[in-house]
């Protein structure tokens, strides 16, 4: 198990100078305590390191300037082990023992739901950075990653026009792929397409042969995979070994492709994401440059990490505007601020605490690592019939 506390300092003199003129409520303590629940081990450890590093980068940037209202950012890092029990235990520790001001992190749905079960009762702010299936709503829950309608709804007419009119879905058996399948089906049928099959596999599956046999039998125009984590490595290797020719849409990114997959395996695959490293804007170029300067020139970043980075910056801006770290005060200020993120300008919707995210379709390059952006749908407002805060 990993339990660590990281204090990121920009220098005593700078910090002392920053304190001058800071709102008194923000000067009441030495640091702003940010609790991080990260899957450093387990199914999603592949992505946990990058998410953690993006939080570290955001904290370092804040501390090199004014911190948050003159207070340095202190990270309390806990490994939730990609388990519900781990997520619950770590959330309780962060709130009850470490007395953090805010909790951020987690990747897959079970981690998130377990963490939310603790933070909601404690009325403690929880910022979630990962692609989110929706359906959960709480005043103290902030989603900085996209929900299905932000990824799927804009993309499906493009899929029907450019890739084909029939899709077969294979996915890990948990909430996010299930809700994504519902959204894909509704949006694709509206665009004139048809889902010809959908099969779900438990975590730890080692043989995806039945799905590939079904693909050969059904002959869909497109295969959409939502197999995640370590299982996605197995699935993609087998996908290539079966020599399936259909275009593949999969929840891959530069980090996963480089660190987990054999060279070239992801080449030609598509994915809808709010962020790609290929985005050509000054903020993204600085983000990538700063990340690599801090963690290594060969390191890649992804949408989950970028959404985590954005979340800490949004929290900082809201706390400074509120002149307070009280959860309700930060929440009240949050929809009134905007952050110039690597993906483009973002803000949080006051009606549901979901972020207005950008939506891009990326296609993996021949090296199977980087992506070119083949379609930009702009900023998508989150529509959440299940949530009003």
UniProtKB/TrEMBL annotation:
Q: Which UniProt keywords apply?
A: Signal
Gene3D superfamilies cross-referenced by the UniProt entry? 3.40.50.2300
Name the UniProt record assigns to this protein = Substrate-binding protein
Q: Does the keyword ATP-binding apply?
A: no
- Which domain of life, per UniProt? Bacteria
Domain Leucine-binding protein positions: 31-366
Tell me the first and last residues of the signal peptide.
1-28
Question: Does the record's keyword annotation contain Membrane?
Answer: no
The text of the family note is:
Belongs to the leucine-binding protein family.
Source species of the chain: Mesorhizobium calcicola
């Amino acid at each position: 198990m990993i339990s660590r506390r990281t204090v990121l300092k920009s220098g005593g003199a700078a910090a002392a100078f920053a304190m001058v003129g800071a709102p008194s409520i923000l000067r009441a303590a030495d640091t702003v305590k940010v609790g991080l629940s990260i899957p450093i081990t387990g199914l999603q450890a592949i992505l946990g390191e990058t998410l953690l590093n993006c939080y570290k980068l955001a904290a370092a940037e804040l501390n090199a300037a004014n911190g948050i209202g003159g207070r340095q950012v202190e990270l309390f890092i806990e490994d939730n082990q990609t388990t519900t029990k781990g997520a619950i235990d770590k959330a309780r520790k962060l709130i009850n023992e470490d007395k953090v001001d805010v909790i951020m992190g987690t990747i897959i749905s079970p981690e998130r739901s377990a963490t939310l079960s603790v933070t909601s009762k404690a009325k403690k702010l929880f910022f979630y950075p990962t692609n989110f299936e929706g359906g959960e709503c709480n005043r103290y829950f902030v989603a900085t990653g996209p929900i299905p309608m932000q990824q799927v709804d804009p993309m499906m007419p493009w899929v029907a026009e450019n890739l084909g009119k029939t899709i077969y879905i294979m996915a890990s058996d948990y909430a996010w792929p299930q809700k994504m399948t519902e959204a894909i089906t509704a949006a694709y049928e509206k665009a004139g397409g048809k889902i010809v099959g959908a099969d779900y596999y438990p975590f730890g599956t080692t043989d995806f042969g039945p799905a590939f046999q079904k693909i050969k039998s059904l002959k869909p125009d497109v295969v959409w995979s939502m197999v995640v984590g370590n299982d996605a490595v197995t699935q993609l290797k087998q996908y290539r070994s079966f020599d399936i020719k259909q275009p593949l849409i999969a929840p891959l990114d530069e980090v996963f492709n480089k660190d987990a997959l054999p060279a070239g395996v992801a080449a030609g695959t598509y994915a809808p994401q709010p962020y790609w490293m290929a985005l050509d804007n000054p903020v993204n170029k600085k983000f990538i440059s700063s990340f690599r300067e801090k963690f290594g020139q060969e390191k890649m970043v992804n949408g989950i990490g970028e959404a985590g980075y954005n979340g800490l910056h949004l929290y900082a801006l809201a706390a400074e505007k509120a002149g307070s770290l009280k959860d309700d005060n930060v929440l009240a200020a949050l929809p009134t601020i905007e952050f110039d993120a690597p993906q483009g300008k973002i803000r949080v919707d006051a009606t549901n605490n979901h972020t207005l995210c950008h939506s891009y379709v990326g296609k993996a390059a021949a090296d199977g690592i980087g992506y070119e952006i083949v379609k930009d749908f702009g900023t998508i407002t989150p529509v959440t019939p299940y949530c009003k805060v």
